[in-house]
Description:
By secondary structure, this protein is α+β, with helices and mostly antiparallel strands. It is built from 12 helices and 8 strands. It has a 4-stranded antiparallel sheet, with no helix packed on it. A two-stranded parallel sheet has the order 1-6. Helix 5 runs antiparallel to helix 8 and helix 7 runs antiparallel to helix 10. The radius of gyration is 43 Å and the shape is rod-shaped. The termini are close together. Keywords: Cell outer membrane, Coiled coil, Membrane, Signal, Transmembrane, Transmembrane beta strand, Transport. It holds the Pfam family OEP.
Amino acid sequence: MKRLRFMWLLLWPLALPSVFAEDFSFDSAWQRLLNVSDKLAADNQQLHRAEAERDAARDLYLPSLSINGSYTRMEQPLELDLRKLNPLASLDVTTLPAQYAAILGSIPGSMFVTPFTEQDIFSASLQAMWPIYTGGQITAAQGIQKAKVAEEQQQQELSRRELFTTLVDRYYAVSVTAALVQTQQQLVDSLQQHYHHALQLEQQGQIAKVERLNARVALDDAEVTLGSAKRQYEMAHIALSRLLHDADASISSPMFVLSNPLSLPQLTELTLKQHPALKLLNAKEQQAKGLIDLENGKYQPTVYLYGNYTLYEDDSLLSQMTPDWMIGVGVKVPLITRDGRSGKVQAAKSALLQARYTKAQTTQDLSLLVDQSYRQMLQAQEEISALESSKALAEENLKLRELAFSQGLSTSLERVDAEIKLSAVKTKALAAHYRYLQAYARLMAVSGQLDEFIGHSKQQETRHAG
């Protein structure tokens, strides 16, 4: 920790604010990202939505109960005129004896009319319907919603792993660019000393003017490169701060290289066994199967129980004749519909095949990704090892060139070239370290071993703190 803080001080004024900022270990940065990520928050809400829709589908087996009310105004009330019924309708009054004809003629017409309803009708009732057989449509619909929940869970895990690799890229980019600034600053400091030395030797007549100019040009180039390195550090620091939603995040976990090699067959097995992309496609396959069952169920009859209880009715004769409650069993058999059931079945079968083919392709892609990342990690590790010897050679060569130049046995160009070569070796080593961590992070993410990466970062931080 003290060493890292000292390194930030070397980057003044670029890193001065970070001295007062909160230090994030890689583990703490990961925990913060899990809490502040808008992407994960959005995926979490999508999962809650799928879970709510799954819970809603559980109610499909329950009966429905509703209160229905109505008001109807008819053109005229329903009435029954007895004179329109036999035998009165077919009776010829002229054929009757006079006294009977007189009696019938004296009866008012309203006495022959029986009203059944009023012109305005009010009613209210409690109605219930309970499906008891739907051809498997309810079960299929519930299975589809359950598979959608599984899909969203795996999508959330995919987002989590993607964020993990993004954090690795941005977190260690800060470390690499900071070290790069430090390396370039050392180069600039060394070339400044060399330039002043060359200036003194020129004034003493020990070297030509061109030697001093060569030292000046090398110093100018190094200062330009230092400015570029500082800009890279600034962008890396901004990217990490935006990712963590922290205005001035600083890091404390150094880069590392594993001491023990990883097992490629084990990584491949873990990846193909539990990768969320494959589980997501399994959920897609289950949804497609559910759609097939759902559409096939529409060819089956629907059986249901129903009931009705009258809550309010008027005082008409028809209301008195109507029972207060009734229950029964109903059946609905589809014969000809216009919803395109056969086409929907074929579409669902195509979705099933699509999920299976996509799963097969994804399996190949994941296996290739593991192989590529593993070999990239090995390549970066070999470069790191090879550059150690190159660094030792460059350091020794620089010492010799400095001694030879001070004694007039070497030119400024040779001395500057040795300094630049050493800086180039350090820069290559930093780049190789960064590529190594990126490849290692991809392997851990694709195989679901995020905790392994975090554990190694903790161990490295503990070693440096000690």
